[in-house]
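Worked example (supplementary).
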Amino acid sequence: MGNSALANEAVKSVALTGNEAVATAMRQIHPDVVAAYPITPQTEIVQIFSTFVADGLVQTEFVPVESEHSAMSATVGASAAGARAMTATSANGLALMWEVLYIAAGLRLPIVMPVVNRALSAPINIHCDHSDTMGARDSGWIQLYSENAQEAYDNLIQAVRIAEHPEVNLPVMVMMDGFIISHGMENVFLLSDEEVRKFVGERKPHYTLLDAENPITVGPLDLQDFYFEHRRQQAEAMFNADKVVQEVADEFAKLSGRQYEFFEAYKLDDAEMAIVVIGSTAGTAKYVVNELRAKGVKAGLLKMRMFRPFPAARLREALADIPAVAVMDRADSLAACGGPLFGDLRAALYSASKRPLMNNYIYGLGGRDVTLDHIRTVYQDLEEMLRTGEVKREINYLGVRE
Amino acid sequence: MATLKEMASKEELFTGGHRACAGCAFPIAAKLALKAANNPVVVACATGCMEVATTIYPYTAWKSSFIHSAFENAAATISGVEAAWQALTRKGKLDQKFDLIAFGGDGGTYDIGFQALSGAMERGHNILYICYDNGAYMNTGVQRSSATPFGTHTTTSPAGRVQQGKRQLRKDLTQIIAAHGVPYVAQTTTGHWSDYVKKVEKALAVDGPAFINVLAPCRLGWGYPPEDTVKIAQEAVQCCFWPAYEVENGVWRITVKVREKTPVADWLKKQARFRHLFRPGNEGLLEEIQAEVDRKWAELLKRTEESAELSA
Ligand SMILES: Cc1ncc(C[n+]2csc(CCOP(=O)(O)OP(=O)(O)O)c2C)c(N)n1
Ligand code: SF4
Ligand SMILES: [Mg+2]
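After joint prediction of all chains, the assembly is encoded as:
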């Protein structure tokens, strides 16, 4: 984080939980429509936003729908009608939205949705892992993960601009780890309402259902002769998103002093071994990196922010020269070939002339604690990999009774 | 109500050239509803024959705005459109009234979209939901729905050696929505154009949610000659299988008089989907069907009489 944020007098640091920070960002974004349904650990976002509505702090139309399927459906209807529309969910709620997630993306609707990560049933569990949003990784949504409440707040505000950019027009989900971040109290630097209002601007849709002069048909049957072209355009928007995400981050940095990239490279330049991680575990892992660095071990870390679109070329650049890399997945693909991040990252590195030795750790499922010792063992394994030039075990389950 | 002449001179917002079968009734429901509207219209439509036959990219039969999202979410989709209208109007970004109408088939309404419909009705959005009930999942090849009448042959309730069509009674969705206490609920058929148009006008005029269940024969799934589309719908009212009535602010009223109640078998006989019921040995089933029609009709008469007494 740059120091200019602290220097800016308008910047206020407030102690907030992740859910409070996200709800605050929603108030400041001031969407036209929020349609949402409660589910732990996202519930507070809906509750807090409801109080904003009840107290007249926003003019948003809040639609307390009867399910998440309807939450996403109403959000789709609102967005197609020209509104800036948002919802929020977790786990089973996201799973219930599944069908409509693809529709939101396919109809090219710039919906923004915070997702508080939680394990999917069964067995039912309310705590953090990434199995919910990882399952939605190919739904056509842009996915931004956050390490802490500050990032969740910042990502959400940026998401509006990314989604509505005319070259993108895609929905964006912004993730934070359930309970660990959503319920953990942190100091968060807030922008002023005015700054956020100016930054997000007004939505300017090309077409809307509520344009009486120019009626449109949205979502027609699209068969063999056009469907593929429309999918190709959607794919192109994902390619474009890459550029837009960085442009928006740079503009946001000017406003906030906080510069975001596709991923954070932490002590990676001269690293001989690195772990790649998503979400709050990055904080724990950075502590271990510092510990190792103090002992002269060249350890580094890469924290993913943008998972969709997958910044493959940049990741290749950042990781190809590092001799040993461990990929940490807080979700299992259950495909008996490692987690989703591992699969994508290995594919990204395939075309590199020099490739690291790589292994995968599935960890933290159902909210299982990730301790410093866990991370230390990962780096120990990496050291051994370096020494022997061999990957002893490719897919590892970390912190579980086996 | 607009006269026939006035209606005829209004712009067609639902145009020809769509690909519904000859003798299909839902186009009547779509066309007349849009004719009855006095504001620009936004239609949300569920997946089903209506959507599939009227919007095939790059063509559309709709000159109003139209959105199709999925099979089960037309009510939620139109809720979102309404919420957008509320917010944009409140924020001063929009100054235009709209008539917001959702269409769903019986499958998309009675079955898979039932929850979304109930939710939208309970939340009180200013919308009109029109179910065009053709008594089965026609788009996917005539499978039974909870709207399919008892005894009907469909592809998932076939008349076979040991079973004679659908074994369950149909769900009475109109009454279920009436039980939501919304300001306006009605049912009618595509064969009663003036009753239907009047109902759409009333439904659009109320402040809050309204629901119309319009029986819309499917020539393919029902098996009748295409020229009989209007007649077959009218006869459903005359035999009291499908009474035309409304529930306006809790007051129940029959809107199409039944002068002489005809035997339901006369109506069933004209449709291939009931052919097996006329085979020897199935007389009991016909009697059961008649008894159920009589029971429901008596129940409705009682309701309307009570309403008349209460409002007198
Ligand atoms: C979630 C989902 N399940 C199933 C389908 C397949 N499907 C499309 S239309 C349809 C039946 C439609 O029946 P109805 O609502 O009665 O409309 P109709 O075709 O009879 O006009 C079905 C089963 C679907 N599109 N989506
Ligand atoms: S199958 Fe039936 S409902 Fe579908 S278009 Fe043909 S007649 Fe109409
Ligand atoms: Mg049907």
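Two points are worth noting when inspecting this output. The mean pLDDT of chain B is 97. The pocket of iron/sulfur cluster (ligand 2) is lined by residues B 20-21, 24, 26, 49, 53, 134, 138, 218-221 (CB under 6 Å).
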